[in-house]
Design brief:
about 475 residues; alpha+beta; Aminoglycoside 3'-phosphotransferase, Chain: A, domain 2; 2 domains; seven-stranded antiparallel sheet; six-stranded antiparallel sheet; 12 helices; 18 strands
């Protein structure tokens, strides 16, 4: 299989792909903004630039298949001027057929009306077992296809007969499960450089940390003509069969009126194990007065921008500002903190509990909206902890009536579990913890106001507490 694909990529793909993108353009302008993983919602797409194209199956065959990296151009907002955004780069797997069978109807992108492949139907190929199976085979055999490089861990066995199924739940990337044995996460918005979603699990696997599934294989793109760095496009990891998503598990226990403290405590221990392993494997740094000043300025700036965007924050702004001022005061007194590599976007939805009761942490990509260099910077571990504490609060307030006592119990249990492994309870550092919780809650208010106004009362309840408290509960 790999040899045939390689030949078609080198001999035919470069001739068809530019014309294909031109004919796909009007279809992608409609289809792309509807995808959960599209980052530029609310701004029209003004055009596309082809970054790279690899023809995986001949375009003139019964089933054509292209791997595309395309840059979507969008105008900036009015406050940013009339310039054009350079465009986010997206990974697309485009299938081409004469007509789609009914089972592939949800994958439809549209019908090509002009160009070299006029009359064909374009669709999201991950929904199709044959293209999805080709990806696994390429990873298994360490294929080189055009600029695509498929790598794997030789110590993990990857069978070639695993049946693929696409994960249809909404997520910020796309995933395919292979025979309940592996799960392939394809990153949708990609940038050059080492993505932490591959980097950190590989490091943790070498450290023998059992709390993160070890990558079995990964997909890279080498674009020598545009950058010296590779793009990380996807990661294949063991699939934890029967695992429960932490968010869904918490909501189920809440709905039944069940206590979640034991699970929260175990999750705190798992988080500390990951932090400890990362601190052992990678350099740590001391954040002194200058770095802390920049940290406080960033938090304060985000608060001021949020107050302008969401008027409901105005009454609480003075109280919230004290959280950052208290941190600045400690920094001025000479207090410092240790920073290290962390998860970067930790919440209940980034955690899995296996049927045996063990917790795993997944999705180390960080916040995709942040620059890659920023996501890879050492940060205080309390940032992860604050994210999880906010997640317990979200779960408690998603119920009617809300269950603030449930959240308080979970928060305390999580911190206690963390201390059992790390040797230090996060609550003994209340100023730093409050600052990060406040920063996170401010972000949540802006997000909910823009995307889910019905959820706005959830972070606002935390805003009221954080604005009134001298320290977190």
């Amino acid at each position: 299989m790999s040899e045939a694909v390689t030949r078609s990529a080198s001999s035919h793909g470069s001739a068809v792909a530019p014309g294909l993108l031109a004919s796909l353009d009007p279809l992608l302008r409609e289809w792309l903004p509807r995808q959960r993983w599209f980052a530029g919602k609310g701004r029209p797409v003004s055009g596309f630039t082809l970054v790279a194209a690899t023809e995986l199956l001949p375009a003139d065959g019964t089933l054509g298949l292209f791997h595309l990296l395309v840059r979507a151009h969008q105008p900036l907002t009015a406050t940013q001027g009339a310039r054009t955004h350079p465009g986010d780069c997206y990974q697309l797997l485009i299938g081409l057929r004469e007509a789609l069978p009914p089972r592939l109807a949800p994958a439809l992108i549209g019908h090509l009306s002009d160009g070299p492949l006029a009359g064909r139907t374009a669709y999201e190929a991950l929904y199709d077992p044959r293209p999805a199976g080709m990806l696994l085979e390429a990873l298994r055999t360490r294929a080189r296809i055009g600029g695509l490089r498929f790598e794997r861990d030789a110590c993990q066995d990857i069978r070639g007969d695993l049946v693929p199924r696409v994960v249809t739940a909404e997520q910020s990337n796309s995933s395919v499960v292979y025979g309940d044995t592996f799960i392939l996460k394809l990153l949708r918005r990609v940038v050059p450089g080492m993505n932490p979603d591959l980097e950190l699990p590989l490091i943790l696997a070498r450290e023998g940390c059992p709390r993160v599934p070890a990558p079995a294989a990964w997909l890279l793109a080498d674009l020598r003509d545009t950058t010296d760095e590779s793009y990380v496009l996807g990661v294949l990891q063991p699939f934890v069969q029967g695992a429960a998503d932490g968010w869904e598990l918490a909501l189920r226990e809440l709905a039944k009126g069940e206590d979640f403290a034991a699970e929260a405590r175990a999750l705190g221990r798992a988080t500390a194990e990951v932090h400890t392993a990362l601190a052992r494997a990678l350099p740590t740094v001391t954040m002194g007065q200058g770095q802390l000043r920049l940290l406080v300025e960033g938090m304060t700036g985000r608060l001021e921008a949020a107050v302008r965007a969401v008027p409901a924050l105005v009454p609480y702004a003075p109280g919230l500002r004290t959280a950052f001022e208290a941190l600045a005061d400690l920094a001025a007194e000479g207090q410092s903190w240790t920073a290290q590599r962390i998860h970067g976007d930790l919440h209940l939805g980034q955690c899995l509990r296996s049927p045996s009761g063990d917790w795993s942490l997944i999705d180390f990509e960080g916040e995709p909206s942040k620059p890659l260099a920023e996501r890879r910077m050492p940060q205080p571990p309390v940032r992860d902890i604050a994210g999880m504490l906010r997640s317990f609060d979200y779960a408690a307030h998603s119920q009617r009536p809300a269950a603030p006592g449930w959240a308080s119990t979970c928060r305390a249990a999580y911190c206690a579990g963390y201390a059992e492994v790390a040797g230090r309870d996060p609550r003994t550092d209340p100023v730093l913890l409050r600052a990060y919780e406040t920063d996170k809650a401010v972000y949540e208010v802006v997000y909910e106001a823009r995307h889910r106004p019905d959820w706005l009362p959830v972070p606002l309840s935390a805003i009221r507490r954080l604005a009134a408290d001298a320290a977190p509960e």
